[in-house]
Automatic annotation (TrEMBL):
Gene this protein is translated from: trpS2_1
Species of provenance: Proteus mirabilis
Protein name according to UniProt: Tryptophanyl-tRNA synthetase
Keyword Ligase tagged: yes
Key words of the record: Aminoacyl-tRNA synthetase, ATP-binding, Ligase, Nucleotide-binding, Protein biosynthesis
Pfam families attached to this UniProt entry: tRNA-synt_1b (PF00579)
EC number: 6.1.1.2
Amino acid sequence: MNKYLTENKSIVLTGDRITGPLHLGHYIGSLQQRVEFQNKATQYILMADMQGLTDNGSTPEKGQ
């Protein structure tokens, strides 16, 4: 952890709900910004798979 603190990089925490396949909206909404930050910040990305499964309880294959 000390390595990250001494590099003077920002730390970014973000996440996604897994609700189906990637599409253009994902790219415009968040993926493009993550690519821009990849060399400027340390990024931690959370995948909210439980929320994706509960939101799609009637169609669980959508969350795979």
